[in-house]
Amino acid sequence: MRALSRCCLLRPSHALRTQSRSHSSHDFDVIVIGGGHAGIEAMGAATRMNTKTLLVTHKTQTIGEMSCNPSFGGIGKGHLLREIDAMDGIFYGNQLIRHPSHRYDSIETMRALSRCCLLRPSHALRTQSRSHSSHDFDVIVIGGGHAGIEAMGAATRMNAKTLLVTHKTQTIGEMSCNPSFGGEMSCNPSFGGIGKGHLLREIDAMDGICPKICGMESTDFQYKVLNRSRGPAVWGWRAQIDRSLFKKHMQNKVLNNTPNLTVKCCSAEDLIINKSGDRLECQGIITSDGQRISSRTVVLATGTFLRGQINIGLECYPAGRIGDEPAIGLAKTLESAGFKMGRLKTGTPPRIDKQTIDYSNLEATGGDRPPLPFSFMNDSVWIDENDQVQTWLTFTDDRVAQLVKETAHLSRHVREEVRGPRYCPSIESKVLKFGHKSHQIWLEPEGLDSNVIYPNGISCTLPEDIQQRLINLIPGLENAKMLRPGYGVEYDHIDPRQLKQSLETLVIDNLFMSGQINGTTGYEEAAAQGIVAGINAAAKCLHKEPLTLSRTEAYIGVLIDDLTTLGVEEPYRMFTSRSEFRLMLRPDNADLRLTQKGYEMGFVSQKRFENFSKTREQLEESEKFLKSIAKPLNQWRNDLGIDSDSRSGSTKTAFDMLGLNECSVQQMANLYPDQLNAISGNPNASTRLKCEAAYERFRSEEQERAQQMKSEEMLEISPQMDYMTTDMNLSAEVRHVLSHNRPKTIFAAKRLPGVTPAAIVSLLYYMKRIHKSAVMSPNDCLTKNG
């Protein structure tokens, strides 16, 4: 039982019961003495017949040891092995072979299994057939950070039987810049921002978890929309989060209010990979205590844990996060399976005692009035606009730059060749790149009752004593006390060009990946990938078509397309500038773009869909009414009280007028109270109506461009395309780029650096020529999506 206790399983009490028996006066039905080949087969046969079995052996470490030659079979002996296998025996079964190409992996697997030798109920975690399924779970999600939580949530909403594997249940919901096994909040205590806020609104439109937790009472204490000086299409929803309350609400949601879910506390050491025809398939995991858990699909959301390494000054040690061991076995498995791997790094700043800061000369910033909620399910936020907590702004100066330059040689993290985040670099990287330029530092509280301040802008990996000196050189922080130092973390990631748009891997079927393992950075990017991976993992189990979001449909589509087409050379961060269709993909209309699709596919609840339908109906009716009223422009200006020298007599609709900066929904409601008072009294709805009107004149042009892009996205290129053939008129550079990136569509090929328009024409012409049919258009030589 001590062996079993190393891996705790949280699930309904009846989930792992053995069948009731009348002969309960015995401790066991069968006792097998000896852990050799005879004993293992005896034990296996007994447990498969649902008998309560005890295996007694001298040492668990020697179970599965092959004392003689490392082979099975031979003349006559092979007949015995085939017969044992026919009776579902252990030693020759495929269940022991993690990689079909490795002949003797059965030894290694038996050693892993041997770490748990007492016994488990015979049908608790078996890979053999059960009455309702041949797998223990439909979906296994590895990692309890933001990617893992959203993947788990999406799969369970689609009624897939789901297992969440995480190091500790106590750390679920502790926000982290390494959103992996449990997600300790190592990064800033906030959600959203420019581009990132779009992702969160889209996650919410698909009934995701994180935006809903953000909207719960006491979780957020400051709401702000960034980029308000620009148009609403690029506004960035952002909220400061109370770490402890976010964690509390998230754990309650995951552990107590998620049907179809089992949570298992351990690490996943390996994947169960079998061969099906000429393809590899992932069929489950092997945990740190040797348990084999089978599933139809697996989602990896391991964050920074793949061969993770912590750096503070010149010290380094293996860890995925402070206090947790890295995932070495998984990294080796992915590498041996043929994945191209890379290495990235990130970091976190030191924490400061709130009571030791001098705020007298710092610039204070409050929240918006009125504040806008993250979730489409909320019309307002829980906190009064006047009670929002402040943040403070300070700056570095030449003294900080001088100290960094003098001590940079003491930071292993900075000296490493590994690429870090360009848009959220460490203070060392900023100084070494920009010299003595001053840099902003936002002092952000970590909670309503917390004494901890997060200094956003000085991510640091210098030795601890130097970090304290650096802090005390910053205005307002001269006497500040550092509570704990910042640190850097290096980790493995896969080349995301090895993923489909569904986030299933091209190398191994049934294996999905999301979050920092794909080379991204940030809570929001991780959560966005997680919800798509979870949806598609469940969809595959349920024999449904995968959810693929185009660049024309969502920022999530932009994110995934960038990853799978271009790959990453540095941690990927979302910005509004990455989208070609910013006017269509606004944060205010994410539900109009995605909620209907989610409801039809099964991952959006009835409650959310009904709320969405009412909102859509209200917006459509208001827009229809406003478009039905037309007047000369000068009359509109008189009616609305808008000053103008224009005497134009051109006719404009009320909807046209609402699109002007000078006109508000309230002004229109004053003219037509019966039709518009309801929507004008709702700040969210009136803002959305105003946005629709403002961007109406750009809609047709952007939709036309989007349609052209969609047609190019539909043109698929064969994965076996030979770009080196002399029959294709391409330069050596273009051949190399296309061969290296293997674009999946013509649109993807057009986006690759170095691929010219002439090369695209040549590619289309070649594909037309080799097509068997006589056709008029190169489109016909390509396969169509769906």
From TrEMBL:
The family database entries (SUPFAM superfamilies) matched by this protein are listed as: FAD/NAD(P)-binding domain
Q: Which terms are listed as keywords in the entry?
A: FAD, Flavoprotein
Q: Does the keyword field hold Ubl conjugation?
A: no
Entry's Gene Ontology molecular function annotations: flavin adenine dinucleotide binding
| GO biological process: one example | tRNA wobble uridine modification
Cellular-component GO terms for this entry: cytosol
Its cofactor is: FAD
- Short name of one Pfam family for this protein? SAM_GIDA_C
User: Mind telling me which SMART domains this protein's record contains?
Assistant: GIDA_assoc_3
Q: Does the keyword tRNA processing apply?
A: no
- PROSITE patterns per record: GIDA_1
Q: Taking every annotated instance into account, which residue ranges of this chain make up the domain tRNA uridine 5-carboxymethylaminomethyl modification enzyme C-terminal subdomain? A: 693-765
What family is this protein classified in? Belongs to the MnmG family.
This chain belongs to the protein called tRNA uridine 5-carboxymethylaminomethyl modification enzyme C-terminal subdomain domain-containing protein
Q: Which organism is it from?
A: Oppiella nova
The lineage is: Eukaryota, Metazoa, Ecdysozoa, Arthropoda, Chelicerata
